[in-house]
Each structure stands twice: as C-alpha cells, then as structure tokens.
Predict the structure.
Amino acid sequence: MPVKNFVLLFAILCLSVSNAFCWDIIPKPKTEKPEKELCGLNPTWKWMAGPDSTEAIRSMYRQFERWADTTATGYFKPLDMFEKCPRVVSILIDKNVKTGTEGYQIRIKKEEIVVSAKTVRGLFYGLVSLKQLVFPLFKERKPFPCGTILDEPRFTWRGMHLDVSRHFFSVQEVETYIEMLALHKMNVFHWHLTDDQGWRMEVKAFPKLTEVGAFRPQTMNGHHRDKPRTFDGKPYGGFYTQDQIRHIVQYASERMITVIPEIEMPGHCQEMIAAYPELASKDTTTEVMTVWGGTDHILNPFPPTFRFLEKVLDETMALFPSAYIHVGGDEAMKKHWRKNTRIQKFKDSLKLKNEDELQSWFIQQIDHYLVSKGRKLMGWDEILEGGLAQNAAVMSWQGEKGGIEAAKMKHYVVMSPGTHCYFDHYQHEPKSEEPLAIGGLTTLEKVYSYDPQPAVLTADEKKYIMGAQGNVWTEYIQTFSQVQYMVLPRMAALSEVVWTEVPSKNYPGFKQRLQPLSALYGAQGWNWCRKEMP
C-alpha cells in the first residue's frame, strides 16, 4: 500500500475510534476523557440540585425540562434537594471546578451524572451539553460513554446578529432565535433594530419614529440588481413595544445571552429622517426606503440632532442593560455634508480636514455621551475612518483589516468578516437551487475554517479580539423559516469557531457530530439546510 494511502487510512481509523468513545457535543468541549463503560439514563433516574442551588439553577432545570418535552416524556422528575442515591443527575454549584466563569464539568458514571460549575452561567452551558448528550438516548435508546468533560469557551463574545428592519419578525420568532443561540452556547444577540427600511423600537419621546418610521409604503420585488425594478404595492412594517423589548431582554438573560441593540447613525437613517425631516442634511422630505441597498440620506451634525439622539439613547439604555450600545456608523454617504454650505462652515469651525473626520467627530460625541452614562460604544469598522473614538470597540465586517488596525491600537474587536460570517450569503452551489440571497458563497466548511485571531497580530494584540459574530441581513429573507434555513447549521460551525481551541477542531469530526444535533433541530420544529448532512 502506498504510504499516502496508509496515512489516510490510519487517520480515518483514528477518527472513527476516537468518535466511538467520545460524545456528540457541539461546540466540541475543551477536554474529554471518555471511558469504555456506558451510561444508560432512563426514566427511573432522579434529577436533583445541591442545597446551595439558587432559583436561577432551578429556572435552568425547568427550561431543560421543557426542552426535552417533545422527545423525552417521562425522563424528567421533580427537582429535589441533593441527597446521595443511585441513578441520579446532580446539578450543583462547585467553586472547586477547574475552569473559568463560563466553564463547567460533567462527570458521568454508570448510575450517576454530576453537572457542576463555579457559576450559574457555567452550569447553564453544562446543561446545554447534557441536553445534546442525552438526546440520542431519548430518541434511539442509545447509551453514551462514562467519563469526564471539562469545558470552557475560547472567546468571551460569541455572537449572532438579526436584522429586523428589512423584514420584521414577531416576538415569538425572536424568542425562537434566542433558543437557537442558547443551544449553541452563543452569548450575544446583536439586534439590528433600525435602518433605512424601518424603525422597530418604540421611543416614547419621539412617537413618529414608529408611527411613520416603522412602516414603508411598499417593498421592491426580486433582487436589487434587477432592472426594471418592480414593487409589491403593499404597506409593510411593525415595531416592538418597550414592554415587548423588556420581555425579550429578560428571556435572553435567562439563557445567558446579552442583547446588544443597534441604533444606526449617522447613515442608514432614512426612516428616521422620514419621521423627523429636521434631522436631515438635505432640505427635503422623504419616505421610508422601499428598495434595498444604501441611501445618500444622512443626519446633520448640529446640536439639536445630538439632543434628539441622546434622548433616543436614554430610552435605549433604559431597556438594554448591555455594556455595549452599537451605533452602526457604516456606509454613511457624505454627499449632502459636502453640498451643505452650513455643514461645511460647521466642519471648518471645528478645524476638521474632511467629511471622514466630521463623521469621526460625530461618533466621538456619541461615544462621550455613552461613556458618561456608564456604557461603551461599538460600531462597524467604518468608524475608524477619520480617527477612532477614544473608547470605541470595532466590529470588523469589511474583511479583517479594520479589526487588525483597531487591535493594534489596543481597542477591543469583534470579528465578523463578510467572507466567513455573513449568513445572508448563499451556502451551496448551484445558487439557482437555493433561496434568493444577496450574493456571495459562504459554505459550512468555510465558516468552520475561520480563526478570529489573525496571525499578523502579536500575542498581546490578540487579547483585544473578543470573539466573532455571524450576521443575518434580511433584505432577501422574508420569513422566519428562511432565517432558520440560512442560519442552521452554519451557526453550529461558528459556535465551534468561537468556543473550541484551534488544535481541537476537526471538520470531519464536526460533520459527524452535526448529525445528532440536526436531529435535535428537527425535534424542536426548526428548519435547517440538510445539504451538508453526512
């Protein structure tokens, strides 16, 4: 046998042997020590919590119980206080677990499973892993190996984004999206609430933002590049009340997910200008945008605009307790700044060289305001143009260049390059067999191959990379079922990118573990792309 073929055969055999004695968990745990003995959890087992368990632990248990309702009726018993007995799953806080604050440990014996962590957050992730572990047992009566799992994430920012401006999704659908994140141990939900095509957050100080800005008169058909353009002639819109937003934030918090709101400025604001024309840099009125793509409308940089934005941000911060508030800052078309004589005089009075520096100054004013309120500003990588605000974090979408530049300046970064993290792209060839998408091709394997820490950064600079995020822009995603199809299973690949250390990653092994996870998608009624299933 040729040496090359022997090496390949040996690698396949090693992979099959290792998987035979490992656990089907995504993202792959940091340390796995399986044993040959098997555990066969069944309905006679008790589920118990330690005497120091908090109400939050009990809440997680109840959530775990609901997760399994469709496939494991009879397996879950009332949660009792901890006592030593055979055939028990114990859930407890243990300050001696050798992980960080998001880590957990699962010890599996023939008649005992112990899920433990230093914190409630770590315990939640342990229960998520247990959910994946026991699902094949519920469905197929398939036991799993005994042994020990010791796990913790690689990055602190493990994010998913959802654009609700271009297409609006109900509270129940947003809840389901959050459940999808929780299953993959993602801990940030970036909620893109405002853009040219619709404003989605109730602001009591400015009711026209939802009365006018939340509804567009019609929507274009087909793709932006289609000519001539046609429209459906149907008014479209919706928004979330402040009570609904509070509910979503709490719902996410119970699943260890922070909701980061995005309020776009100074560009991508046509819907804001349609509601309040005095904010515009051009002396004209407009309507909420009905086509996809960018707009040349941009907010003016005068004091009344900042007073307006500060009131909007005050209500935003009252609803979202997140450390970061995302302010967009991307694709701001500055034509009307250049053409407006008053704005040019204002720019000169500030001794700014050009419109890029004026945008930087604009973002700096918002940065100062957020910092004065105990918050931090985040924006897309265009906020680097003209100079980066002192306290700003950068979300790098135009490749990695912006993120690298920011990290070298010792600013925190979330990597989200369109090449690997845009889930509105096609995921398979031929594209004609896929739902209409904006373009591009981002396969499951391409997502999995990504490393958020560029090799060009030094070890110290890499510390400023908080993690990575997948983005779902919805110009061409009209239904929540299609959102699920575009996200799953690519979110699973990204979850392993941001959780699992690079030496532990293995794409063939990931594909094998994806099969039982996708069965869990189906058990929960989610839609997913089946073309990558092994």
Q: What stands out?
A: The first helix runs from residue 3 to 20. Residues 41 and 515 are 21 Å apart (CA to CA).
